[in-house]
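[#protein-structures] MJ: dropping Amidase domain-containing protein here for a structure pass
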Amino acid sequence: MSIIMMDHDEPDLVSLDAFRQLTASRKMALQPDDEAAYYELLKAADKCVNNPTNGSPGNPLGGWSHRTSIKSSKAFKNNLLEGKTVVAKDNILVAGIPLTIGTSPTHLSKDGKYPIPKIDAPVIQRVLESGATFTGTAVCENYCMSALSFTSASGPVANPWLPRGPHGERYAYACGGSSSGCGGLVAVNVVKKIRAKKGLPLVDIGDGADFALGGDQGGSIRLPAAYSGIYGLKPTHGLVPYTGIASLHPLIDHCGPMAGSVRDTALLLSVLSGYDGMDPRMTPETPLRTCVPQYHEILDKSIADRSAAGTWTATQAAKGLRVGVLKEGWEVPTISPEVAAVTKAACQRFASLGGTVEEVSIPMHKLGPAIWTAATRAQMIDSMTNMSPTLLSHTLPDLNPPVPDQDWYETMNKFNPAVVNVFFSGAYLSNPDLFPPAYQNKAMMHVHELRAAYDDALSKYDVLITPATPTVAMQRNEKWHGGGVMGHLDLALGNNMNTGMFNVTGHPAMTMPIGWGKPREEGVAGKLPIAFQIVGKRFGESDMFLAAAAWEAGGLAYDEWEG
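AK: finished. structure tokens for Amidase domain-containing protein:
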């Protein structure tokens, strides 16, 4: 269980009169000293479950779901995150903090209230044992089913890099999803640092976080990291425990780090990784906690060794690295010319840094989205009612959702038609009269075939590169507000065409900022982040971190931002 610490720096949200009314209603008389003590404790409890209003002064970008301040009072040997703040996607169990999964409370419990977990997920326990201060849960998209940041029941989450839209409206651009609040809150801290470094005026974007724990079933760590201009890693499947986190399908469930630098991403992965004894997604390949690679130390040593050899320079940092540029990654129908050009040019930087850069073709990559859908869609419907899927897994405690009905449809159709689509298509594809077990077997065989295709390419290259997203972040337009079902879905179509396939194959994949692009709307001053995706061998995260750090030896993308 988490140990709650009192925070005297935050303003009080409950008055002494309110506390006295509470005790009077219970016909209790307290001594003055006792009253003062219990009032202090009540204020601490109130702050621990402070649900900030979207767009309020304390939550201007809408990224916070519930704010708190939790720090372990125990002393641990491992204090890797001492002094750092961490938030978690609001589909991860945190004891005492309401769980929303981005949706209405009526969808999660029969009494119409958000469930309050009694336990911490292992990943929460691990960050607390590493000395971090857990500062709250971050908004996620409705049922974790959107690549953008417009569908949460609490409201949209806005991108901190460009606070004004084409008509001067505040906070108009998306920061990606479904770990939308995670991307936005980490980006807040990054934007503040970059603005201060460049001497640019500070803007009101609220409080952020140093790290975030995201979730990824089709790109939901990598897409918000890309749109928000930070670093996001979907680790190898089974490396980080998914126990105590709302599932969509065990085959594609991943939890991973989101941070403001390559090294911080490696650092948080060191904290999160390793067997937990409960998660059936883990295999004999998963390292025991005592055997987890210290990814940040491995990265530090690689850089130190290259520095000692005189090769960690702007012309030789990538010496010896073999980089495969995945041809089909640039053949996504929705990719913009600017994103295509910026990401292609970024790949060539590895060559200027002494690396080997070659184009590689994996034709089956184009089938990845279809394989991802066929292998998982029929079972996703189980997650909506907290049922154990056909694959071995566990349901979440304290979650008691009603069976979807007309009221569920009306609400969900308004907020996120993608969930309704998954419900209908899942119900259809799970009909054994139409789709017998052989259909599922065939889909799984294609999963292994696709994995083998990437494995073959990765036997020749250290990493593969694709664009992370087809465009820069977009804003909600007239189609979203008045275009019905397809208007809601239009902006998100094609966003995960380079990400979802690595969920089913289990390969680690990380997005990182590499440049800047113009918003699609005319007359907007400023630019938004562009990212590429680095894909590595299964359990080969260290190679990916080295490749990312080598690329940045030629300069950070942040250095090019003009405000």
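MJ: nice. The CA atoms of residues 10 and 47 lie 8 Å apart.
AK: one more thing. The mean pLDDT is 91.
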